[in-house]
């Protein structure tokens, strides 16, 4: 993979008078939380970056090719100077102990009486964001919902969001939560950054507001947990539509034969999925929450054991999904050491990824949620990964999703891709 570099453009746009501040953007619940029978929640929006860029911008904006669309992640604001930002609610203070570019980050905090923290920057000249997506570096001690709102002159907006868990400061891949009105992304006049306190913490650190290019509209299909229904119900349906997918399996949960009790795949069924063109990835050795392991099990041992099994069986051991979408620094580091891509929960319609270790996904959406995500992907461009878990109530949601994927694909508006495609083409 290419090493990510940042081309500093901080200060290229300056703050004018502030207008229309103080709106509330409560998250709309795209971080679906589906539970598996082992007690692991899936679909917690994670999508975080690893902060491994060198952070050395040249300050001149060169190196982006012939057009205006960046070919690398570009720093827009390194928060070395906070005078461009107005604090709308809560507080925003410099913090020198955390940073990924420059010498400081910004500590955002809300008081007990406030439901959000929000800072806002109005631009002297409109910014064309039709071909780029925003991102941040984020640190927190617990779960936070961080949003980036892009407003045009008419106050229509696109809201990008990511839900992150407790971690040291890392870059985060943001996805689209919702669109309000008909925003003109070629003429963005305001950028807001907010933390919604309603279902998370009132404190987080942010750094490096940056932009990444958007890929053409693409979708990945995935299945978590290694359940037999992925073989008995999902595989025939995908064959009918002509698609393959990725199965993230926990090797220690697999059954030796179909005669054994349980609802997990057998090793032979996993092999048949692979023969049908599916990618076989890791769901950790036991499929348990990597942040709540007991005994002598650690995130590293769970990740390494599953990766070794994949290699021994001749599968591509480069891809993993975090069980339940849960992670911490130790889990992230284990994934980085053993895999090319790590998938978790989050919001759809992502740009190029600044962090391969935490790739966002929409987890087990209903038919309407999947349709909305796919249509937004086709409209705006970007990567949307959709994962399903169990099918206790049948495969209606999966079938509805596949039907809409096919409609968009046949219209030339979207392409179904694989983790191999993402690793090879869409990681900065």
Structure, described:
- There is one protein chain.
- This protein has 7 helices and 22 strands.
- With 428 residues, it is of the alpha/beta class.
- It folds into 2 domains: 34-213, Galactose-binding lectin (Jelly Rolls); 218-425, TIM Barrel (Alpha-Beta Barrel), CATH 3.20.20.
- The longest helix is centred in the last third of the chain and has 15 residues, at 396-410.
- The termini are close together.
- The relative contact order is 0.17.
Count of distinct structural domains: 2
Beta-strand segment tally: 22
SSE class: alpha/beta
Through-space gap between termini: 8 Å
Q: Please indicate the percent range of residues in DSSP E strands (runs of 2 or more).
A: 25-35%
Question: How is the biggest beta sheet arranged?
Answer: 6 strands, antiparallel
Sequence stretches where pLDDT stays below 50 over 5 or more residues: 1-22, 30-67
| CATH topology descriptor of the largest domain | TIM Barrel
Q: Please compute the radius of gyration using only Cα atoms.
A: 21 Å
């Amino acid at each position: 993979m290419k090493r990510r570099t940042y081309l500093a453009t901080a200060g290229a746009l300056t703050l004018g008078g502030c207008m229309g501040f103080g709106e509330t953007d409560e998250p709309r619940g795209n971080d679906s939380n589906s539970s598996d029978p082992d007690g692991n929640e899936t679909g917690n929006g994670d999508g975080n970056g690893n902060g491994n860029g060198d952070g050395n911008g040249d300050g001149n904006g060169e190196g982006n090719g012939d057009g205006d669309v960046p070919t690398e992640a570009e720093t827009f604001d390194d928060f070395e100077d906070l005078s461009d930002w107005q604090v709308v609610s809560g507080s925003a203070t410099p913090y020198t102990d955390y940073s990924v570019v420059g010498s400081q980050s910004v500590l955002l905090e809300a008081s007990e009486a406030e439901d959000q923290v929000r800072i806002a920057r109005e631009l002297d000249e409109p910014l064309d964001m039709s071909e780029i997506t925003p991102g941040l570096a984020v640190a927190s001690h617990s779960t936070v919902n961080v949003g980036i709102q892009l407003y045009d002159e008419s106050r229509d907006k696109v809201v990008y969001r990511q839900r992150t868990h407790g971690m040291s400061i890392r870059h985060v891949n943001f996805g689209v939560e919702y669109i309000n009105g008909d925003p003109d992304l070629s003429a963005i006049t305001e950028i807001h950054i907010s933390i919604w306190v309603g279902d998370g913490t009132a404190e987080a650190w942010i750094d490096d507001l940056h932009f990444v290019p958007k890929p053409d509209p693409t979708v990945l299909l995935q299945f978590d947990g290694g359940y037999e229904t992925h073989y008995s119900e999902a595989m025939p349906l995908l064959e009918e539509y002509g698609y393959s997918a990725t199965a993230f399996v926990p090797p220690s949960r697999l059954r030796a034969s179909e005669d054994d009790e349980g609802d997990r795949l057998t090793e032979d069924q996993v092999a048949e999925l692979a023969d049908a063109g599916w990618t076989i990835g890791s769901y950790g050795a036991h499929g348990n929450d990597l942040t709540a392991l007991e005994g002598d099990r650690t995130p590293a041992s769970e990740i390494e054991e599953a990766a070794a099994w994949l290699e021994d069986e001749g599968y591509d051991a480069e891809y993993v999904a975090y069980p339940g979408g849960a992670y911490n620094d130790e889990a992230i580091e284990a994934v980085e050491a053993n895999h090319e891509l790590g998938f978790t929960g989050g919001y759809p319609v992502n740009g190029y990824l600044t962090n391969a270790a935490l790739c966002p996904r929409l987890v087990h959406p209903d038919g309407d949620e999947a349709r909305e995500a796919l249509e937004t992907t086709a409209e705006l461009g970007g990567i949307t990964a959709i994962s399903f878990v169990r099918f206790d109530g049948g495969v209606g949601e999966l079938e509805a999703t596949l039907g809409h994927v096919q409609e968009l694909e046949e219209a030339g508006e979207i392409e179904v891709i694989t983790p191999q495609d993402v690793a090879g083409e869409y990681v900065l």
